[in-house]
Amino acid sequence: MMDIDDAILEDQILDDRRIFTGSVPKEEICAHPGFFAGMCMKCGQPADDDSAVPLKYIDKNLRIANNEMARLRDKDFKDLLCHRRKLYLVLDLDHTLLNSARLSDIKEEEEYLSSQRDALPDALKTSLFRLDRMHMMTKLRPFVHTFLEEASSMFEMYIYTMGERSYALEMAKLLDPSEKYFHSRIIAQGDCNRKYQKGLDIVLGKESAVLILDDTEAVWKEHHKDNLILMDRYHFFASSCKNLGFSYSSLSQLRIDESETEGALPTVLKILRQIHSLFFDKGRKDNLEDRDVRQVLKTVRNNVLRDCRIVFSRVFPTNFTGELHSLWRMAEQLGATCLAAVDPSVTHVVSLDSGTDKSRWAVKEKKFLVNPRWIEASNYLWKRQPEEKYYVTPAKNNRKNWPTNESHGTFER
Q: Per the database record, which ranges form the BRCT domain (predicted)?
């Protein structure tokens, strides 16, 4: 990523040359491209612009005018794409790359993480950190260091968290101790333009070249959700489940962890490689700068449940418009066709109850009868999952028997 000061200074030098040669009148008014502590970064005069974009994660006093932001993005975009063949990747922290818990929230059945540290497996020991200064314990997600190393060859990466800056910087030290991945590109809650909402307006990357990895869709502005790859939540500590209102045991309570080779991060890395390859495909006839990674992401996602025709039964609340439900939208994003009523073309009935008319029809007509986790698992694993793992059976006809991803956080891979 370019240095903001250097980029604006470079243009100042060019302008000075134009003035010196007489090609621009000396009295030309400064456009005030950027501001630092109420002063224009170009002409040095007191100035400000309420509509300028604050880049507090670079410096708390830095604001860049909208036109200048567009110019800087375009300049960086061309360099990144044409010369470095990279895109942008915005990474959430909690539940995506790692999981943290306050020391006071560590449950009795998790005490072994501290009291028996020497006996812990090496993979756990090297990814578990007790941060006494912050009164917390942090567990890095399996494969995270390999993920960052390989992703950095394809993307310029940002950290973007709803946590405080002090926390974000501490986590960055664990993830990137050599400071080779993120540099100043660490955005925390206090850097956002709107409280409790993330947006790409403060990211120095064109939206058409940005991908986002995050476990929470709701924190992103609506028009940035096309950039989002939703991550399966990483619930290592018990408090992680409790804080979100879930009663399921965490990975630490079960004394297990995600797979280093088939977990969430290696799975999504394969998708990122595929998207990167398709975006930079030399066989494409369109101009590289005109391509949109959101369209590539949409194409890849649409292939997951392509040719599936789905009807839902007793999944949505009474009088709820099915088309508005997250499961309906998720299935369509994966390429499935969702229908309101059964017909011979239906391939799957998604239900919580094997006793409904539609469920019985599915059994009679030898259609797949699966619970909602089949859609969620296919979404998080980017692959149509074996239906037999998600069959609805008479013994499991109660809604509480079908926890969603948010309930536990790890799909079997």
A: 300-392
Q: Identify the CA nearest to 88 among candidates 140, 160, 38, 138.
A: 160
Over the Cα atoms of the chain, what is R_g? 25
Q: Which two tokens stand for residue 261?
A: 């080779």
Could you give the CA distance from residue 117 to residue 124 in angstroms, rounded to a whole number?
A: 9
CA pair distance 255, 249, nearest whole angstrom: 10
- Contact call for residues 316 and 322 (beta carbons, < 8 A): yes
Burial of 189 (0-12, 13-18, 19+ CB in 10 A): middle
397 vs 5, higher pLDDT: 5
> What are the start-end ranges of the E strands in 226-362?
228-230, 309-313, 337-339, 348-351
Torsion of CA 271, 277, 281, 286, to 10 degrees: 50
SS3 157: strand
Closest CA to 1 of 195, 203, 175: 203
> Residue 42 — pLDDT band, cuts 50, 70, 90?
confident
The pLDDT of residue 140 is above 90: yes
pLDDT tens, residue by residue, 302-330: 999 999 999 999 999 888 888 999 999 99
* Residue 147 clears pLDDT 90, i.e. is over it: yes
Residues 76, 205: contact at Cβ < 8 Å? yes
